[in-house]
Design goal:
Layout lengths: L1 H8 L10 H8 L3 H14 L2 E4 L4 E4 L4 H8 L4 H16 L2 E8 L2 E8 L13 E3 L4 H8 L3 H11 L7 H18 L2 E4 L6 E9 L6 E9 L5 H20 L3
Antiparallel strand pairs: 1-2, 3-4, 3-8, 4-5, 6-7, 7-8
Helix pairs in contact: 2-3, 5-9, 6-8
Length: 241
């Protein structure tokens, strides 16, 4: 079962169609194992085989794996209304994300006028490099944060120390004002702020972001006006986790 999930996770918007050799390279699984798993996943309705290209693509049934999780998150319908209101007012893309080391996964996304197309629900973004991920990391207690940083470090062998320093700066920002900023260092011409959501018992932790092109909003406005509103929204939504 776990290996079957590894096969499904090899697919992404950038890799919508994959052959057995590509899946093997992406997962590290032996080619005979991949061939057996893809046949089983086709029979189960999770993959579709395209004979002309000799490749596989995901089928809609894959969505059922996530819908059962999403349907149990009572925060989502409440969050969507508030996030869309913020997106409409600011023009930014405003999203809710869930941690999945070493990524953050978008659970909801509301579009604004300035950034109508920027990832989609289910997309994975970098935990260590984005404001979204750093806001989540900032929500952890010191011991849990150090443990998470130790798990992240192997993913960034070439630039971990400056990246760790940037994460710790974001932690300080969240502690000081409730949100953190990443300005053009993750994606050129993109800046964003993010704030953590934490359930009352501390077991559930997410983050929300507000992202804009640099040409649409200067840093002063994003940080001075929309950052505090985002932090207030995160605090209000935390009670529903």
């Amino acid at each position: 079962m776990l290996r079957g999930l590894e096969v499904l996770e090899a697919f992404s918007p950038e890799r919508a169609m994959l052959g057995n050799a590509e899946i093997s390279a992406a997962t590290g699984l032996p080619k005979p194992t991949v061939s057996r798993l893809t046949r089983a996943l086709v029979e189960a309705g999770y993959l579709e085989y395209e004979p002309i290209r000799g490749k596989y693509q995901l089928r809609p049934r894959v969505l059922t794996l996530g819908f059962s999780v999403l349907s149990n998150m009572k925060v989502l319908p409440i969050a969507h209304e508030q996030l869309q209101r913020l997106a409409t007012a600011s023009g930014c893309a405003v999203s809710l994300a869930w941690p999945d080391l070493p990524h953050m996964i978008y659970l909801d996304r509301c579009i604004g006028e300035a950034l109508p197309y920027f990832f989609s629900v289910g997309s994975a973004i970098d935990m260590a490099r984005t404001a979204t991920g750093r806001a989540y990391l900032a929500s952890l207690d010191p011991k849990a944060l150090e443990s998470m940083l130790a798990k992240l470090a192997p993913y960034y062998p070439d630039d971990w120390q400056p990246l760790r320093d940037a994460i710790m700066l974001a932690v300080s920002e969240v502690n000081e004002r409730g949100f953190c900023l990443v300005d053009t260092t993750w994606r050129q011409n993109i800046r964003g702020v993010a704030a953590p959501l934490v359930s009352r018992d501390g077991r559930t932790r997410m983050s929300i972001n507000c992202v804009t092109p640099t040409f649409a909003m200067d840093q002063e406005t994003l940080v001075g006006k929309w950052g505090p509103l985002l932090a207030n929204t995160a605090q209000a939504l935390s009670m529903y986790l």
